[in-house]
């Protein structure tokens, strides 16, 4: 054979199939691999890719009267309902698919108290959705028919109705003040501007012009934000503003245009009084674990000096420092207006519409870019907004704690503007 025979062009045809056993082996392995991918991947997604499925149902609760107490996020009746439903499904054939249940609403009907409940299941698309729904119906029916339970089936409506995941999550997350578990306040010793966990402060929004963060704001309904009036000193045109949600500025989890900006009538840009505004979004947000409202306190609510509170925002970590991409939180303390008005502190500049929070020793404080953002306090395991980041002299300076608009003072104004 010529030394150059390998230069001859390859001939095509069956007779030239590789005879080298190694080559045959390799080809077979390659074909098997490709087939495995082509068949296996879709099959994998069909069989193993579990997705949440939600069903809506309602129960009758015979021995309970309707009261607004029931609607509280941690009400006992809600807990009893969900624990009974959990019990039923965890002993059933659907224990592998059942995840949890949520009471979304109470109604009082001629038939007694009713609770609307969402049931969450998780299963692969290969499982027949209809079959699972029917099984779940049967299980509920079977367990509730003798009337000895806390719950009874509600005969007046279809048993289980499938609803979309987005719609279900919107309804489940529509309660206010559900962020990080407030016990973190006592557990965590560190309080110096740490980065926030996902979904810890889901009401926090960023108000932006040309996609640049200007101020913080807080979601108080699916369409209203609460913020500071001074955020709009340079720009009051709603069309130039957008609001983003989620813990990072880039990428933003959700973005909304602004329809209108309502600034307190008595606010004037040369002073710090009445530093409050509400912003109406063009389209409502969709609630999720990461986007929820903060609770508004009653006008009579009073946060005592030394209470632990938390301020959050994308503000700079030092004076004229850069804006971070990730949301930060700082644990601060309420300081009484008397202390804050001492001659060596703010010497009388703190009015009754303001709250003082931080430390006289300095260091931990809000700063530029945090303005408009929330100061929150936990109450019965829910977070309430008591302050709006407003002003201060420098950031974290000794004897110069942060000043916040006192939300309770403006509770009626908020109601007047937003009806919330
Ligand atoms: N005015 C500042 C802003 O526009 C917020 C100031 C808060 N300062 C403070 N030391 N707490 O972002």
Key terms:
single chain; 420 residues; alpha+beta; Thrombin, subunit H; six-stranded antiparallel beta barrel; globular; disordered N terminus; binds arginine
Average predicted confidence as pLDDT: 91
Structural class by SSE content: alpha+beta
- Taken in chain order, the helices and strands follow as HEHEEHEEHHEEEEEEEEEHEEEEH
Could you tell me the CATH topology label of the largest domain. Answer: Thrombin, subunit H
**What CATH architecture label of the largest domain applies?**
Beta Barrel
Written account of the structure:
The chain is α+β, with helices and mostly antiparallel strands and about 425 residues long. It has 2 domains: about 50-170, SEA domain (Alpha-Beta Plaits), CATH 3.30.70.960; about 195-420, Trypsin-like serine proteases (Thrombin, subunit H), CATH 2.40.10. It contains 7 helices and 18 strands. The strands form 3 sheets. Strands 13-14-15-18-17-16 form a 6-stranded antiparallel beta barrel. Strands 7-8-9-12-11-10 form a 6-stranded antiparallel barrel. β10 (about 240-245) and β11 (about 255-265) form a beta hairpin. The longest helix is centred in the first third of the chain and has 28 residues, at about 20-50. It is globular, with a radius of gyration of 29 Å. The termini are far apart. The model is unreliable at about 1-5 (pLDDT under 50). The structure holds arginine. The site of arginine has 13 residues, from β17.
